[in-house]
């Protein structure tokens, strides 16, 4: 069983998790640069509380500030990717490399030059770029001055940034993703939206207003991008994963339905151009009063996405009454532990069939081409000599690739491609640790940034190389 001709097999990274060199060549601080190597990084930031990630008591380690030095190693890394045989690569552009504070009139040319070089390397090896414009990454100046995406002013600043890079790289990038995992503004608001709170505010009001501003910026970016180059394709991007009911009790089933509706709200707007009907009652019940103008509604309706991209790591599970039920982590939040899924070497439960279910769910709902732009296993690897035998990663990838091929060939899902997340080891969002490794390429660094930085091919590199070479068929080999 294989993918169709032209299927994009690739890998993905983000600027914030790989580039390092956070003040190099005119760049200034981003929100991501303030995430420490501790358990506070995913929590909402309340400015009226004494201990926040913006006011650390002790000297902290900030992993993204050094990361894996992709800023200097991109040529070596892209060469390794070309040897892997992939035909596509997803990366993001750091907003604060192009507009260091977000409010400059003109771009930082050194920042543009850096991404020009990356594109040049990809073109040399005939690797298709898939570019994320904002991957949990905005200039920290906009956090301080406007509270990030809470303020409508940031919409105009973002569109100016997006227009600048789309104009500068016109004709070289076909697939643009304006925002990474937009729905995560509801789960990790500082990371997803650069927003902070005080304890007297309704956090949902701020989060959904920030989400609306991102939706508006997304639509305006599509409008401008199509004017620059009508052939450009724009995608929604969400953190996806089927939410199962814990039991077949109708109360549990309805709880799962509500959870999924809320999770798919942002992609619904990006695809259909309007808010789903349930939001009127949901907003009223939660005392949310969105500032949405008639012009906003028109912009959203007229500028919908061409495809729906998503990350998938595991499914979720919920119940109407969660008291006493064991919880486990999933992508950015906690979920009820699914008793039918096996134990995993990752903190997330392993559910490869859930990917096929999710693909069918999204395709049935949206009838747009889908694109898996993140999937992978983050876990510890053991370096033995100069080898990493990561059979557990191979098993994870095999199960998920098998199920995407089944969805494509047997279920009729329209699928553009598959991007393995963190194809080169990087610092994780949830923990900040490089030791939570995702890649088929090992980076010799520890969580505090110590090590040679050398790159090594894992056993999974050879396995994925064969999958790409056979257009997926090797995933079904024993």
Keywords:
478 residues, alpha/beta, TIM Barrel, glycosidase, beta-glucosidase activity, 6-phospho-beta-glucosidase
SSE arrangement:
Layout: E1 8-12, H1 15-18, H2 70-84, E2 88-92, H3 95-98, H4 109-124, E3 128-134, H5 140-146, H6 153-168, E4 175-179, H7 189-193, H8 203-228, E5 233-240, E6 243-245, H9 250-263, H10 265-272, H11 278-285, H12 294-302, E7 307-312, E8 316-318, E9 327-330, E10 333-336, H13 352-366, E11 370-374, H14 391-409, E12 415-421, E13 441-443, E14 455-457, H15 459-469
Parallel strand pairs: 1-2, 1-12, 2-3, 3-4, 4-5, 5-7, 6-8, 7-11, 11-12
Antiparallel strand pairs: 9-10, 13-14
Helix pairs in contact: 2-4, 6-8, 8-12, 13-14, 14-15
Protein name: 6-phospho-beta-glucosidase
Keywords: Glycosidase, Hydrolase
GO molecular function: beta-glucosidase activity
Tally of extended strands? Answer: 14
What CATH first level would be assigned?
Answer: Alpha Beta
**Per CATH, which architecture?**
Alpha-Beta Barrel
The residue fraction in helices comes out at: 25-40%
What profile does the largest beta sheet have? Answer: 8 strands, parallel, barrel
Low-confidence stretches: none
- Quaternary structure of the protein: single chain
């Amino acid at each position: 069983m294989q993918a169709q001709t032209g299927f994009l097999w690739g890998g993905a990274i983000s600027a914030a998790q790989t580039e390092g060199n956070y003040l190099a060549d005119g760049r200034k601080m981003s929100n991501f640069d303030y995430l420490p190597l501790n358990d506070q990084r995913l929590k909402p930031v309340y400015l009226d509380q004494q201990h926040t990630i913006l006011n650390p008591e002790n000297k902290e380690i900030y992993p993204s500030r050094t990361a894996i030095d992709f800023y200097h190693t991109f040529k070596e890394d892209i060469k390794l990717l070309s040897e892997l045989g992939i035909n596509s690569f997803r990366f993001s552009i750091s907003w604060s490399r192009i507009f260091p504070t977000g409010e400059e009139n003109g771009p930082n040319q050194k920042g543009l030059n850096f991404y020009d070089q990356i594109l040049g390397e990809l073109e040399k090896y005939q690797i298709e770029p898939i570019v994320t414009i904002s991957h949990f990454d905005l200039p920290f100046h906009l956090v301080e001055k406007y509270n990030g995406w809470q303020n409508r002013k940031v919409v105009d600043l973002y569109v100016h940034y997006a227009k600048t890079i789309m104009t500068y790289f016109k004709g070289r990038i076909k697939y643009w993703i304006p925002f990474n995992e937009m729905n995560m503004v509801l789960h990790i608001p500082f990371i997803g939206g650069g927003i902070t709170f005080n304890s007297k505010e309704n956090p949902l009001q701020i989060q959904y207003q920030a989400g609306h501003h991102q939706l508006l910026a997304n639509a305006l970016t599509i409008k401008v991008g199509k004017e620059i180059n009508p052939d450009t394709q724009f995608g929604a991007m969400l953190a996806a994963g089927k939410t199962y009911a814990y039991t077949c009790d109708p109360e549990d089933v309805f709880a799962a339905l509500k959870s999924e509706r809320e999770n798919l709200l942002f992609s619904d707007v990006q695809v259909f151009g309007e808010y789903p009907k349930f939001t009127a009652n949901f907003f009223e019940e939660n005392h949310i009063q969105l500032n949405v103008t008639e012009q906003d509604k028109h912009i959203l309706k007229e500028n919908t996405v061409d495809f729906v991209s998503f990350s998938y790591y595991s499914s979720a599970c919920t119940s109407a009454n969660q008291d006493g039920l064991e919880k486990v982590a999933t992508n950015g939040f906690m979920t009820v532990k699914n008793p039918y899924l096996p134990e995993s070497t990752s903190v997330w439960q392993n559910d490869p069939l859930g990917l096929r279910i999710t693909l069918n769910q999204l395709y049935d709902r949206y009838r747009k081409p889908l694109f898996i732009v993140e999937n992978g296993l983050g876990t510890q690897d053991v370096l033995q000599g100069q080898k990493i035998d990561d059979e557990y990663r191979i098993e994870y990838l095999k199960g998920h690739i098998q199920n995407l091929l089944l969805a494509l060939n047997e279920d009729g899902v329209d699928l553009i491609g598959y991007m393995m997340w963190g194809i080169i080891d990087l610092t994780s969002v949830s923990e900040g640790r490089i030791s939570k490794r995702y890649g088929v390429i090992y980076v010799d660094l520890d969580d505090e940034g110590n090590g040679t930085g050398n790159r090594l091919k894992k056993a999974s590199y050879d396995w994925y190389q064969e999958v790409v070479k056979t257009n997926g068929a090797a995933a079904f080999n024993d």
